[in-house]
Protein backbone atom coordinates (compact mmCIF):
# COMPACT_ATOMS: atom_id res chain seq x y z
CA UNK A 1 0.00 0.00 0.00
CA UNK A 2 1.36 3.39 -1.04
CA UNK A 3 0.27 6.68 0.49
CA UNK A 4 0.69 9.82 -1.55
CA UNK A 5 1.74 12.16 1.25
CA UNK A 6 1.71 15.25 -0.95
CA UNK A 7 -1.92 14.65 -1.94
CA UNK A 8 -2.85 13.95 1.68
CA UNK A 9 -1.19 17.20 2.79
CA UNK A 10 -2.97 19.12 0.03
CA UNK A 11 -6.35 17.71 1.05
CA UNK A 12 -5.68 18.59 4.70
CA UNK A 13 -4.61 22.13 3.80
CA UNK A 14 -7.65 22.75 1.58
CA UNK A 15 -10.00 21.27 4.20
CA UNK A 16 -8.54 23.41 6.97
CA UNK A 17 -8.77 26.53 4.82
CA UNK A 18 -12.39 25.88 3.87
CA UNK A 19 -13.37 25.16 7.48
CA UNK A 20 -11.77 28.39 8.70
CA UNK A 21 -13.49 30.31 5.90
CA UNK A 22 -16.85 28.69 6.68
CA UNK A 23 -16.63 29.44 10.40
CA UNK A 24 -15.56 33.02 9.69
CA UNK A 25 -18.42 33.65 7.27
CA UNK A 26 -20.92 32.11 9.69
CA UNK A 27 -19.61 34.26 12.56
CA UNK A 28 -19.81 37.36 10.36
CA UNK A 29 -23.41 36.43 9.50
CA UNK A 30 -24.28 36.06 13.17
CA UNK A 31 -22.70 39.43 13.94
CA UNK A 32 -24.68 41.06 11.13
CA UNK A 33 -27.89 39.41 12.31
CA UNK A 34 -27.28 40.64 15.85
CA UNK A 35 -26.59 44.15 14.57
CA UNK A 36 -29.88 44.14 12.68
CA UNK A 37 -31.76 43.27 15.87
CA UNK A 38 -30.21 45.94 18.11
CA UNK A 39 -32.62 48.00 20.14
CA UNK A 40 -33.97 51.06 18.37
CA UNK A 41 -35.04 54.21 20.15
CA UNK A 42 -38.71 54.23 21.15
CA UNK A 43 -39.60 57.14 18.88
CA UNK A 44 -38.50 55.38 15.66
CA UNK A 45 -40.33 52.16 15.03
CA UNK A 46 -39.26 51.91 11.41
CA UNK A 47 -36.59 49.59 10.13
CA UNK A 48 -33.71 51.71 8.97
CA UNK A 49 -31.44 51.33 5.98
CA UNK A 50 -28.64 49.94 8.17
CA UNK A 51 -30.98 47.29 9.55
CA UNK A 52 -31.90 46.19 6.05
CA UNK A 53 -28.24 46.04 5.00
CA UNK A 54 -27.37 44.03 8.10
CA UNK A 55 -30.15 41.53 7.38
CA UNK A 56 -29.10 41.26 3.74
CA UNK A 57 -25.49 40.69 4.78
CA UNK A 58 -26.53 38.01 7.26
CA UNK A 59 -28.67 36.32 4.61
CA UNK A 60 -25.80 36.38 2.12
CA UNK A 61 -23.38 34.92 4.68
CA UNK A 62 -25.77 32.12 5.59
CA UNK A 63 -26.41 31.41 1.90
CA UNK A 64 -22.65 31.05 1.35
CA UNK A 65 -22.48 28.62 4.30
CA UNK A 66 -25.34 26.53 2.90
CA UNK A 67 -23.75 26.54 -0.55
CA UNK A 68 -20.37 25.38 0.78
CA UNK A 69 -21.97 22.66 2.90
CA UNK A 70 -24.09 21.52 -0.04
CA UNK A 71 -21.06 21.43 -2.33
CA UNK A 72 -19.21 19.29 0.22
CA UNK A 73 -22.11 16.85 0.35
CA UNK A 74 -22.23 16.69 -3.45
CA UNK A 75 -18.50 15.91 -3.54
CA UNK A 76 -18.88 13.13 -0.99
CA UNK A 77 -21.93 11.58 -2.67
CA UNK A 78 -20.38 11.73 -6.15
CA UNK A 79 -17.30 9.84 -4.93
CA UNK A 80 -19.37 7.08 -3.35
CA UNK A 81 -21.06 5.98 -6.59
A few lines on this structure:
With 81 residues, the chain is mainly alpha-helical. Helix content is 79%, strand content 0%.
- What would you call the structural class? mainly alpha
Query: How do the helices and strands follow one another from N- to C-terminus?
Result: HH
Alpha carbon gap, first and last residue: 23 Å
Oligomer: single chain
**What is the helical fraction, as a range of percent?**
over 70%
Low-pLDDT runs of 5+ residues are none
Average predicted confidence as pLDDT: 87
Q: What do these coordinates show?
A:
The protein has 81 residues and is mostly helical. 79% of the residues lie in helices and 0% in strands. The chain has 2 helices and no strands. The chain has helices at 5-36, 49-80. The longest helix has 32 residues, at 5-36. It is elongated, with a radius of gyration of 19 Å. The two termini are 23 Å apart.
Task: Please describe the topology of this protein.
Elements: H1 5-36, H2 49-80
Helix pairs in contact: 1-2
Q: Tags for this entry?
A:
81 residues, mainly alpha, 79% helix, 0% strand, elongated
Amino acid sequence: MHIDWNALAAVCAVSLTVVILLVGVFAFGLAALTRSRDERPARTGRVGRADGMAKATALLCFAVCVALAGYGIVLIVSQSR
